């Protein structure tokens, strides 16, 4: 129509507006690496810090460190200097090396707990959300576990066993599983009311297939977000356990252990406590920022409210 | 462990029998439950004192710490969340939420050492460590509690402020808020009477859940500030493997946690009369 109209001669004095371009050029979506950085600067920053920490932990022996357990009583409590970047502790050990090696413990604990708690929590939540009679039993058990604050549960579990990295991971995982199982069960219960699940049942899908093909994929997004928060909280709990002497053996340089050792002297030599503290806070902050970014990306409805 | 490195097998056997460790688990468990119901938490392996006495001596500092923390946290976090929701997407909101993320990420003892270093060691405003019982006067008592409470409150503030903001944003988008504005109700009244009252349920819930954080944090804060409370008691007990004491304190904390959350459920009825049980 518009084309036809234009073929008629316009009355004199009337100006015809310029034709609009056929296609309005789309705003270029922010894609690729720099797109992510521009849209979610906080999450990108968190990712960068986390990657740096992983690099520090992985390449600890190459970063100008010495043996973190090497004792040298003659150079105790040195302030930071060119030789000892962060100074030395009360046994003359190089604090920089100890802090760098400490990154390994925190990251290993954080990631293993996040993975283990997710896997077990996911399994328990799926079964409990699907099978009615198991649900009652499992949920009462979880109610009981949730009545004990997680840190306290981990502390109590550690009191029963020897302090080792493995036991720390197990203790924190057990303390975190109930929360994951609850979350997954909640998602499963709400998914079961969806019409497409009814359709799948009507089409004769067997229950295990239904869970694996139709329910599991939909629980993964909230799970992943929860996993990052668990990772952050596991690192804090690990440091607290070490700090109060119920964590990894004191001989292992973990951030919590270094701070526990520096505790007696912190009024005179605050550096011993502050360097591991800064590293720990930075790492946890990085994981939390990443978690917030993931939540915004995977769950826009939640993102708007929080 | 208790008998020392050079214990003979007979000694070990004697101690095991004395502690009743030679009898079946199930019987011991029911005996333990029976004891608890009659108000007996057992006897400490290390000091030989009844666990209830040991706990009673340590309750006051921990209780004071938690109550002062709760007051500070709620007093700061709720207004912060309300203002952040009111000024949503402005710099006020952004900085409040950035503060919340930081508060959430910084472990309790890191905050503790940092503020103790600045306010006690450098500025000398507060005592560095230690605890003064309330019987020594309210002034010294509150002074010895300010730094530990602020430390402990930070995580809690972050949590409550985030939830408050979210709940308020939800409520402020409702029609009756627009109606209130249209009929000329003042801004403050809208926020605190029309808004906050209707946003109260999630806020009260998170305050209850956050008591878990408070308990975990108290264990650490008491270590940092050398406060002789229940947290220190349980930490010392762990280091000595003094199981009756560990059991007793964990049981007490869990009991308090359950009780607080029950209280929260009861408060619902008061904030939101639509809820009935």
From TrEMBL, chain A:
UniProt cross-references to CDD domains, sorted A to Z: TM_PBP2 (cd06261)
Main location: membrane
Keywords: Cell membrane, Membrane, Transmembrane, Transmembrane helix, Transport
Any one GO CC term of the record: plasma membrane
Subcellular location: Cell membrane
Pfam family, one: OppC_N
ABC transmembrane type-1 domain sequence ranges: 103-291
Keyword tRNA processing: no
Species for this entry: Chenggangzhangella methanolivorans
Family: Belongs to the binding-protein-dependent transport system permease family.
Superkingdom in the source lineage: Bacteria
Organism phylogeny: Bacteria, Pseudomonadati, Pseudomonadota, Alphaproteobacteria, Hyphomicrobiales
Record-linked InterPro entries: BP-dependent_transpt_permease, MetI-like, MetI-like_sf, OppC_N
Protein topology in the membrane: Multi-pass membrane protein
Name under which the protein is recorded: ABC transporter permease
TM ranges: 42-63, 105-131, 195-216, 228-252, 272-291
Gene Ontology biological process terms from the UniProt entry: transmembrane transport
């Amino acid at each position: 129509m518009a084309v036809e109209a234009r073929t008629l001669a316009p009355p004199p004095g009337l100006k015809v507006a310029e034709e609009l371009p056929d296609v309005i050029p789309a705003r270029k979506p922010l894609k690729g690496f720099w797109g992510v950085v521009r849209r979610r600067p906080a999450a990108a920053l968190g990712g960068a810090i986390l990657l740096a920490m992983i690099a520090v932990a992985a390449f600890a022996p190459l970063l100008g460190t010495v043996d973190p357990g090497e004792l040298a009583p003659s150079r105790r409590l040195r302030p930071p200097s060119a030789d000892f970047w962060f100074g030395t502790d009360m046994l003359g050990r190089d604090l920089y090396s100890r802090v760098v090696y400490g990154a390994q413990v925190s990251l290993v604990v954080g990631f293993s707990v996040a993975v283990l708690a997710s896997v077990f929590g996911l399994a328990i939540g799926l079964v409990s959300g699907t099978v009615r009679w198991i649900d009652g039993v499992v949920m009462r058990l979880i109610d009981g576990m949730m009545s004990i604050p997680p840190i306290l549960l981990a502390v109590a579990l550690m009191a029963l066993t020897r302090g080792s990295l493995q036991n720390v991971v197990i203790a924190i995982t057990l303390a975190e599983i109930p929360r994951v199982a609850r979350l997954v069960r909640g998602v499963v219960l709400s998914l079961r009311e969806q019409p497409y699940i009814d359709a799948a049942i009507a089409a004769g899908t067997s229950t295990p297939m239904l869970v694996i093909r139709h329910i599991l994929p939909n629980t993964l997004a909230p799970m992943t977000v929860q996993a990052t928060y668990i990772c952050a909280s596991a690192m804090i709990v690990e440091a607290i356990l070490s700090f109060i002497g119920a964590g990894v053996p004191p001989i292992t340089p973990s951030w919590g252990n270094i701070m526990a050792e520096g505790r007696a002297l912190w009024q005179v030599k605050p550096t011993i406590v502050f360097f591991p503290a800064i590293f720990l806070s930075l790492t946890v902050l990085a994981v939390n920022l990443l978690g917030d970014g993931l939540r915004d990306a995977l769950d826009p409805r939640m993102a708007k409210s929080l | 462990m208790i008998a020392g490195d050079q214990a003979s097998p007979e000694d070990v056997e004697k101690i095991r029998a004395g502690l009743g460790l030679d009898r079946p688990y199930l019987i011991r468990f029911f005996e333990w439950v029976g004891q608890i119901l009659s108000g007996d938490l057992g006897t400490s392996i290390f000091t030989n004192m009844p666990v209830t006495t040991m706990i009673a001596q340590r309750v006051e500092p921990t209780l004071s710490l938690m109550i002062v923390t709760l007051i500070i946290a709620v007093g700061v976090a709720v207004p912060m969340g309300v203002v952040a929701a009111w000024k949503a997407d402005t710099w006020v909101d952004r900085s409040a939420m950035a503060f919340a993320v930081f508060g959430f990420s910084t472990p309790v003892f890191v905050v503790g050492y940092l503020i103790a270093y600045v306010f006690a060691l450098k500025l000398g405003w507060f005592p560095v460590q230690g605890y003064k019982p309330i019987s020594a006067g309210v002034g010294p008592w509150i002074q010895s509690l300010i730094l530990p409470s602020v430390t402990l409150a930070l995580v809690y503030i972050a949590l409550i402020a985030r939830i408050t903001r979210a709940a308020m944003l939800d409520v402020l988008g409702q029609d009756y808020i627009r109606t209130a504005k249209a009929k000329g109700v003042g801004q403050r009244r809208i926020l605190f009477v029309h808004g906050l009252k209707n946003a109260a349920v999630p806020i009260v819930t998170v305050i209850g859940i956050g008591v878990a954080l408070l308990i975990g944090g108290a264990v650490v804060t008491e270590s940092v500030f050398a406060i002789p409370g229940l947290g220190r008691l349980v930490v010392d007990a762990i280091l000595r493997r003094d199981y009756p004491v560990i059991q007793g304190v964990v049981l007490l904390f869990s009991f308090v946690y359950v009780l607080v959350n029950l209280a929260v459920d009861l408060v619902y009825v008061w904030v939101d009369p639509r809820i009935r049980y």
